[in-house]
Amino acid sequence: MECIYFWPPWPQLNQPQANERQSLPHPFAITVFEDSLYWTDWHTKSINSANKFTGKNQEIIRNKLHFPMDIHTLHPQRQPAGGRNRCGTNNGGCSHLCLPSNKTHTCACPTGFKKVDHNNCANGLDKFLLFARRTDIRRISFDTEDMSDDVIPLADVRNAVALDWDAKDGYLYWTDVVVDTSLESPAGLAIDWVTNKLYWTDADWGANPKIERAGMDASSRIVIISSNLTWPNGLAIDYDTKRLYWADAGMKTIEFGNFDGSDRQVLIGSQLPHPFGLTVHEDKLYWTDWQSKSIQSADKLTGLGRLTLAENLENLMDIHILCVSADTERITVHNPCAVNNGGCSHLCLLAPAPKASSCAWMSSFLIFARRTDIRMVSLDIPYFADVVLAVNSSMKNTIAIGVDPKEGKVYWSDSTLKKISRSDINGKAQEDIISTGLVTTDGLAVDAVGRKIYWTDTGTNRIEVANLDGTMRKVLVWQNLDSPRAIALYNEMGYMYWTDWGEHAKLERSAMDGSDRVVLISNNLGWPNGLAIDMAGSQLLWADAHTERIEAADLNGQNRHTLVTPVQHPYGLTLLGSHIYWTDWQSRSIQRADKNTGTNTITVRANLPGLMDIQAVDRERPLGFNKCGRRNGGCTHLCLPRPNDTSCACPTGILLKGDGRSCDDSPESFLLFSNRVSVRRISLDTNDHTDVHVPVPELHNVISLDYDSVDGKLYYTDVTLDVIRRANLDGTGMETVISQGLKTTDGLAVDWVARNMYWTDTGRNTIEVARLDGTSRKVLVNNSLDEPRAIAVFPSKGFLFWTDWGHIAKIERSHLDGSDRKVLINTDLGWPNGLTLDYDTRRIFWVDAHLDRIESSDLNGKLRQVLVSPVSHPFALTQLKPVSSPLTPFSRLSQQDRWIYWTDWQTKSIQRVDKHTGRNKETVLANVEGLMDIIVVSPHRQTGTNLCGVNNGGCTHLCFAKTNSFVCACPDEPDGRPCSTSYVPTSPARGTSSTPVPNKIPKAPTDTPHGGPSPVNYVIGGVLTILAILILIAALIIYRHKKSKFADPGVSNLTYSNPSYRTSTQEVKIEASQKPPIYNQLRYKKEGGVDGGYTKEKIRIVEGVCLLSNEELYWDDLKQIKPSRGGLHTCMRTDTVSLQASSASLDDGETEQLLQEEASECSSITTLTPSAITPQRHAHHSLPDTGWASTRKPSTESEV
Q: What is the pTM of this model?
């Protein structure tokens, strides 16, 4: 049973009270539970407790609370069960509230609802007063006698002003002047209950207060009262007496008159401090008063019998009295709009007799941007009034604007949101059509005939085009643009014009496909902003804010003359009919003048800050002939008009095919790079180097990238989400492959052969691997790592490379399973960030952001050379594999293959340089924030294979290729499937020519059936092997004979990497001769070792000459490599990859035997003068610096 305790104040308790009183500075709320009392205290900002009987044992339960308020203890003991619930059965029989007492219960009604009998209340209010109080809307019921007000539970009411009620549908309407909408100050509101229209005012009192009248279609507008008015606030119509009532807070009166303003009389002229809202019902007049904070009423005919209905109400605004039974039976009015909407396509509005109704539709209008909204001014009516385009989205900095009159859509650009959007003229169907790759879109033009949208971007200095829905986007002009702004189209002529207000201001023209570009005007220009074409007058008009003139010329830039001067600061310019219209920043107005003479200037609208672009639209004017209208001009993608014909075009980065009409779906070779919040593509097939956003969703902080050319998927790491994800390049199919156990994944590499992915985690200091779907995850390296970053794989060699920019910077290599780990370079390193491999020349390239340079070496860290120095702050780099075969001569290489690309944090750019010489440095893309990783995607990049390429090497989980073998491995966490690290025989897939054999490279690839190899296979294999050896011996004899014709045996040799041939390399041990002291100054530090009692130097010997070819072409290429000064000649040997094209391949022993036969050709390494380090080559391809030199002294014969 619950007990109720009563206690006297603290001073009356039977104990010392002085100190207790001092310990309670400001108690606020109190509760009790069991033997304790709990309270909150404002002063001490705490919750306290004490014994509820004695007040002793005070303690602080919780302190440092900001104004603790009420407090309660929650426990079943506080609400004990038991006792009789007098309302428990059927709510005591009450329809609404049942209130129990000690003996019985009482039925009650909500505030304002009358009681119809002992148990039931009315279901609604019949007569009540509605009033707005800024932050809420309230009502006072006349159905009860208490006249109490209660709040209508509405959400997000901030500054309610005007009210009205639709009794038929039961809806309440109000205006709010704070909520962010397209309205400025909606102060008045009225409902047309006949045609279901809503009317409102959007302004304050003007400089000349007045009361006006017009037809409900805005016709026959007249001023009915204009004198003796100050602040005319409330306005009400008495339909019974046909009187108009209004309240004037300045005059402190309530007056009335006829509908035409005649017979004006003061109804109440005293004790009205500040009347605002006003309404009439039956024989009473009701109003709100700001100053007296009250709602009052009086007789509507005499003004007598004043009563105060409610008082002490702050912020009183509009007021309406409603009688449900009377409002549903409002005056019957003939509605000509009831049948077929009065024949109107849009709005049908009631009108005074004799019209009865009229259709509302703007056929010609001005539409202009005002940064945070778009407004329209009708040109169909004799006065200018701007209305806001009610777009259901926020606008931050709307600049350019365009209209498609055919579909009735408006297009605009927002330089803050960096988007181009569109919606219907009525503000519906808003959508973003371009949301990537924009910076500051200053100009925009809609080709309503060809169904295209053109725009200029002064941030990217580009002019682009796309379909009206944003698809098929293409860069038309990207060179020699400084700050392009306005753009105008002449579709019938196939021309586009634009202004450029850069350092050398100009006005240009080109065909609408970007060709035939010509500068029309380049002198006496300052800030050419607005641009318009007068097709009827065959002239071009522009507004110059610096020279403060509006000028005109013919369509070729001739016959230039000034139309209007001075103009203060014109920005947007447009033309319709015989007038030109422009926006002016300084006067904050829209102006109009005659297009031919520049005279008769008037102000269309004033007091409009933030004015930007403006367009004039006549929706009834014919659009003209579409040159691309028939079958899209025969084009598969873009059809663009030209002066005399049309041209087919492809989206940015894609080349037009040879038929001149069709395009591929995507470029063949391209760069992919990340800048934290986006992934972008730059085509290498075209010369514009324009970045195109890859529409991958949900990017937060993308760091590293890689690509799988087999499945066509992009892999990337996001260090904010700590995930590794993959997606298609069209943005579809995004999935998370690794979602746990990641901290900071800086590097990512895809093994496209074994279908594995590798990554570095600088937060966990690990290198891990998993299958491409994220399964079979395994840690490969987790020791002696400080800050691992970039990572790269060489599947055909079985190597894994990575950089570490920690305390002791280094570049390391291991097999793909993490074994045989080796430090390649650990000297003269700062912050080795990016890393990439040249699979053909067998070289590593890396960027050093601390030493500001790009370097390279061979796969063992030898032959190190500086490619570029200085560079600002490089982060990542990549390079394209040459599109060549072992038989491709120098002259047949693509120019795109010679570049190495990198991202730079400091210059915020992507740059490239010739990877062979370090020269011809170029900026590919500039002004990109947050640049991170970069990779090349090309069908020639991910080539080659290994023993894991077929059936995963027979492994159940992970297969790791090595140089001459492969290994199977299991994931760190079992996945429920049996895992084996040994070879699992599998049947070869149909169409394959080899089955992996564990841990040994096969001499001759064969298809092995389940029953075992046939003896015939051994015979055939032996015959083919012998034949291959014979062919090899013959080729060597021919090679030595040919080489003797141009070799100089008396001069020492220098070995070098020849990037012009497809090469394959082996490590060759060369006995080094004694070097002079200068050698140690010129060379990079290299790892030396002892082998067989000799000191050896490991160098790279190029394999690039196919000795199996009978064509003299390749021998001619070889013979053209002439010795330079100092007697240098090349040292070349057979390409084992080429030899494998025969029926059998050479193993390591056979390769060494072959090299021993050629040892005399590569017998000496001598130091040369610096001028003789780089020998001449065919087709003027200079050789890369090897990084070392030797003395001109014959050495002993090399041993292999």
A: 0.67
